[in-house]
Design a protein that fits this description.
By secondary structure, the protein is mainly beta. It folds into 2 domains: about 80 residues, Beta Barrel (Elongation Factor Tu (Ef-tu), domain 3); about 100 residues, Elongation Factor Tu (Ef-tu), domain 3. It is built from 3 helices and 13 strands; from the N terminus they run E-E-E-E-E-E-H-E-E-E-E-E-E-H-E-H. The strands form 2 sheets. Strands 4-3-7-1-2-6-5 form a 7-stranded antiparallel β-sheet. A hairpin with a 3-residue loop joins strand 11 and strand 12.
């Protein structure tokens, strides 16, 4: 379980195929900020831009760790198939403060940045989310974008997609990989965990369960 509060920005420095063919995933080597791995052990969970992965090797001296990402995960996420920056968050401790919102690290869909513009001291971000996620998104509700806990300020529904509007403060832009956002970029989206269960319960009521 995570909170959507990014604790560091890392970089995928190697993405090696685990075999020949589309059914194989990749082994990723991620370079981290100094000190990030001081309390990390083999088998720990770390979210890479919102996708929960298991540490399979690490080198605290070189500030690197490795994960193996399946072909299924590659198909259902963005930004994990090659080199580049990724948001990092360690799994939350049971006694930790919940600063963001409950995030499972399971990506629900891939969105596309449709607008990004600086407005005053902040940035206005709009993302086209898959239509299938529309029923889970609400104004003033939470959504994780590349693993970052954010608040939805605006929603525009269309037959093909659901566009959400988000305000990014300067601190978020400076301390996550969202600083590199541009129109057309794909981002990982995770809906609010509570919304997922509410939708399931309401659906069960409709079926008379």
């Amino acid at each position: 379980m995570f909170t959507g509060i990014v604790s560091g920005v890392g970089r995928i420095v190697e993405a090696r195929p685990l075999g020949v063919g589309a059914e194989f995933g990749r082994a990723l080597s991620i370079e981290t900020p100094p000190g990030f791995l001081d309390d990390v052990r083999l088998g720990d969970s770390i979210a890479l831009s919102g996708a929960c992965m298991t540490v399979v090797s690490l080198d605290a001296i070189e500030h690197r760790f490795a994960v193996e990402i399946s072909a299924e995960s590659l198909v259902r996420t963005a930004g994990l198939d090659g080199l580049g920056e990724v948001n990092l968050e360690k799994a939350m401790r049971a006694d930790a403060r919940l600063d963001g919102h409950l995030v499972s690290g399971h990506v629900d869909g891939v969105g596309r940045v449709s607008h990004v513009e600086r407005v005053g001291e902040s940035w206005e971000l709009r993302i086209e989310a898959p239509r299938s996620l529309a029923r889970f998104l609400a104004v003033k509700g939470s959504v994780a974008v590349d693993g970052v806990s954010l608040t939805v300020n605006r929603i525009v529904d269309s037959p093909a997609a659901c566009e959400i509007g988000i305000n990014l403060i300067a601190h978020t832009v400076a301390n996550t990989n969202l600083r590199g956002l541009a129109v057309g970029r794909k981002v990982n989206l995770e809906i609010d965990l509570i919304a997922r269960y509410v939708e399931r319960m309401l659906g069960a009521q409709g079926r008379g369960e």
